[in-house]
Write a structure and sequence with these properties.
Length: 472
């Protein structure tokens, strides 16, 4: 019996020890769940932004952010301000520890201006003009400009007229000033619009002026809508509006080839036309020569040329331009025997300042009150496709769909005089284009609010519709 008791005591001791051990393990597990969690707290410029497991994890996150921002910023070298980031180990309840993601770190670095893009700037005369991702990109941009204006010839000398350089710069990430190489090339050559005044010299023509200033004759007419540039005279002041690029690439070379030679214009005055009217009696024809010259090109346009040798292939033919010198008589209020109506009585004779928009004028609806409101023009009947002609020289204000007018053209003739041609089936001129008196501009049709094929013709003075018969 003693022995048995001793055995039972030993078993009891084992049981007690086991219970205590399990209790300790349970207690340790419970303690581990409520104890503080050790993590690395990340602060940017003093503001807590989250936690990471270790310093190496933070370094990896920063690398990922830099790579992503580089891809978003033309592969620029992205640099994070390391001194602005603090890392400290601390114990916190596990439920309070929020691990920092790559996106969160990226947003915080950008919003706190802790990251910047190291890029390359193209400078012109010491001033930055644009930014690209790298020096290689900047050199590609400049090479593209040079290639665009390369001239084939002998003894070629090429250079930028300005002091053009590539420098290192820093810009904010996602900056709108940072460009792709394609955009940078276009921007560098586009530049800004500049307007200058030019006083016409003796024997100047619009062709001479356009060629000397890198423009076209249409460019000059568009910049001077109130002037008929075909009959400019000495002393006239013209606006020369053009885009001035940021850089000018100059190429000097000896070149040879066929060239057109300009024709002269001979002006003859006549009392058969009113002042301001003109007619081409003989059309000018350009000549042709084979020329060898030492030329200076700037952005592809010849600025100076010394002719070394010229062989005439065909002589130019002089243009003969007849210009009117007849004074217009004041309107005397008298009536005319011509057919037509002003919508309220007899037809008032016009002063002839506008020519007929159709070869034959057959009125289908006159100017004046119609259906309880003003009919602001005259309707001339005509079959679809019949040519419509500009009533005077001027600049096309609009050419296209115009509400109830359908396909329509509006032309400004200067001094507040405007004509409109509505319901056209076809339009032959475009916005901003200069047209001459009698030039075919459209075709009769029935577009818009129309019940049949006809031309709706309006004349406006200072924006107010007036009776067209007073001008035809």
């Amino acid at each position: 019996m003693i022995t048995t008791k001793i055995k039972n005591k030993a078993n009891l001791k084992v049981i007690v020890v086991s219970i205590v051990s399990v209790s300790i393990l349970i207690l340790m597990l419970v303690i581990s769940t409520v104890m503080d969690y050790y993590a690395a707290g990340v602060s940017i410029k003093g503001e807590r932004v989250g936690f990471v497991e270790s310093e190496s994890e933070l370094a990896a996150l920063v690398d990922e952010v830099e790579n992503e921002l580089s891809r978003e910023n033309q592969n620029a070298n992205i640099q994070v301000e390391d001194q602005a980031i603090d890392l400290d180990i601390m114990a916190k309840p596990k439920e309070d520890v929020k691990m920092l993601s790559e996106q969160q770190l990226k947003e915080k670095l950008v919003s706190t201006d802790t990251v910047e893009a190291k890029v390359s700037a193209i400078t012109v005369n010491g001033k930055p003009v644009l930014y690209v991702g790298s020096r290689a990109d900047a050199n590609s941009v400049l090479s593209a400009v040079k290639q665009k204006y390369t001239v084939k010839g002998q003894n070629v000398v090429a250079k930028f007229q300005e002091d053009v350089a590539v420098t290192t710069a820093a810009v904010d990430v996602n900056s709108s000033s940072l460009m792709s190489t394609k955009t940078a090339i276009t921007y560098l050559l586009s530049g800004n619009e500049k307007v200058q005044k030019y006083k016409v010299k003796k024997d100047d023509t619009d062709w001479d002026i356009a060629k000397a200033h890198g423009m076209t004759e249409k460019d000059i007419q568009k910049a001077n809508p109130d002037i008929d540039t075909d009959v400019i005279k000495e002393g006239d002041i013209l606006n020369l509006s053009k885009i001035e690029p940021f850089v000018h690439y100059q190429v000097t070379a000896t070149v040879s080839g066929k060239e057109k030679t300009k024709y002269k214009t001979k002006k003859i005055e006549t009392d058969e036309l009113y002042k301001g009217e003109k007619q081409v009696r003989t059309k000018g024809v350009k000549g042709e020569s084979y020329v060898t010259k030492r030329a200076v090109y700037v952005n592809g346009t010849i600025k100076k040329a010394d002719v070394l040798e010229e062989k005439v292939i065909k002589d130019p033919k002089t243009r003969v331009l007849v210009v009117g010198d007849k004074e217009r008589s004041e309107y005397d209020g008298g009536s005319s025997s011509s057919s037509g109506s002003d919508g309220g009585g007899s037809y008032i004779g016009g002063n002839g300042s506008l020519s007929n928009p159709l070869r034959s004028l057959n009125v289908s609806s006159p100017f004046g009150s119609r259906w309880g409101r003003l009919h602001a023009g005259i309707d001339f009947s005509g079959s679809t496709g019949t040519p419509i002609y500009a009533a005077a020289s001027g600049t096309v204000i609009s050419s296209g769909w115009n509400g109830g007018y359908g396909n329509a053209i509006t032309i400004s003739h200067g001094n507040g005089l405007v004509t409109l041609y509505g319901h056209c089936s076809a339009l032959y001129v475009s916005d901003g284009e200069h047209v001459s008196r009698g030039e075919k501009i459209a075709a009769v049709g029935s577009t818009g609010n129309s019940t049949g094929s006809h031309l709706h013709f309006e004349v406006r003075r200072g924006g107010t519709p007036v009776n067209p018969w007073n001008y035809l």
